[in-house]
Amino acid sequence: MLPLKPFSSPLLGKRLISTWANVKQGPPDAILGVTEAFKRDKDPRKINLGVDGNGKPYVLPSVQKAEDLLYHQHGDKEYLPITGLGDFTKLAAKLAYGPSSKPLKEGRIAVTQSISGTGALRIGTAFFARHYPGAKAIYLPSPTWGNHIPIAKDAGLEVKSYSYFDKETVGLDFDGMKKDIRAAPDGSVILLHACAHNPTGVDPTHNQWKELSEIMLEKKHFPFFDMAYQGFASGDTDYDAFAVRHFVEKGHQVVLCQSFAKNMGLYSERVGAFSVVTASPEEKERVDSQLKIIVRPLYSNPPIHGARIAACILGSHDLNKQWLGEVKGMADRIISMRDALYDGLIQRNTPGEWGHVRSQIGMFSFTGLTPAQCDALAAKAHVYLTRDGRVSVAALNAGNIDYFAESVSKAVKGEL
């Protein structure tokens, strides 16, 4: 018997070339990249300034109580309506707009549950792209949350920017902000961080919000609010909603994105809401119908468990009171870490003016550190943060604040 020859075919080589061979490697996420570098570091002093508290997950006691109550109710696992859990969306709108809100009382707010704040933004940008007259662009603050840009682009909107952060003062460039908003074409869509601006931690004052409202009314601009930190910024949910409520009171038909990831700690539950202030109940019904058309091909129906938790907390007098206390406790802890960091830097005679560490608000702080200083902190001190100098103040605690202040001081002095 003759030996068998190896089978070969001119088509075989072609079949081995993958359909996806030309797919390019995408750039790493800046924040997730910091976390990966942190995980590889074996030094016991390491700090990841992209996580909360002591680096361990924390579930609010009010959330635990709500989950216990829900467990004993033995709720079903059926699909929610496209726009979500009605009890949750009503209470989310009440939390944002306030119980005395005129549009809320008159049934003029269209609201849908979303896949947290990111999902709300995706619904909102799609809604603008489809239904806002002449909507081709959206104006974002410079800088802004990194995900705002791809979300807007993915919806087909052109991304433009307006001045927001002043690197010299490490504060708000209010004059530049007003100038750019005035220069935008009439009727432009302007995205605004309602409170605890991410990533700078710099917010307009109430008087500055009032001035911005007047400018935007004059220019017929449309305010698109992103409120991811209500209560988590100042510790007071009403105070943090000032901008949204003032704009509505002055006649703006705002749209609003809400997230319950931070203020309830429901990160993985993906609980959020998107709402539109309309002119009449009839108009609200038409907007509702179009929101359903946007949501249906994205994910059909939102998840139920997190919405039930949020509704349970917001709808119970005792649980809501407890949650508001916990929110204030979280905000107060961050404020205390800002004070401790400021004191630590001043005590070490760190070059520069560090008042912005205390005056900024919310979870994040733009420290003013340079990319080279951030690189030195990671390489020499095992302190990990994004290269733009943003830190999560929530990641600081009694166990690492002194080491962080010492490391920053050395980095600024060039001693690392």
Sheet-strand content, in percent, reads: 5-15%
Q: List the strand order in the largest sheet.
A: 2-10-9-8-7-3-4
Please give the radius of gyration in angstroms. Answer: 24 Å
- Along the chain, the helix and strand elements come as HHEHHHEHEHEEEHEHEHHEEHHHHEHEEH
Work out the helicity level. Answer: 40-55%
What is the residue-mean pLDDT, rounded to a whole number?
91
User: Strand tally, please?
Assistant: 13
The CATH architecture term of the largest domain is 3-Layer(aba) Sandwich
Count of the separate structural domains: 2
* CATH third-tier fold name of the largest domain: Aspartate Aminotransferase, domain 2
Largest sheet: 7 strands, mixed
SS field, number of helical segments: 17
**End-to-end span in angstroms?**
76 Å
Class of secondary structure makeup: alpha/beta
Question: What global shape is seen?
Answer: globular
Q: What is the CATH class of the largest domain? A: Alpha Beta
Word description of this protein:
This protein has 416 residues and is of the alpha/beta class. 47% of the residues lie in helices and 13% in strands. The strands form four sheets. Strands 2-10-9-8-7-3-4 form a seven-stranded mixed sheet, sandwiched between helices. Strands 1-12 form a two-stranded parallel sheet. A two-stranded antiparallel sheet has the order 5-6. The radius of gyration is 24 Å and the shape is globular. It starts with 9 loop residues before the first helix and ends with a helix.
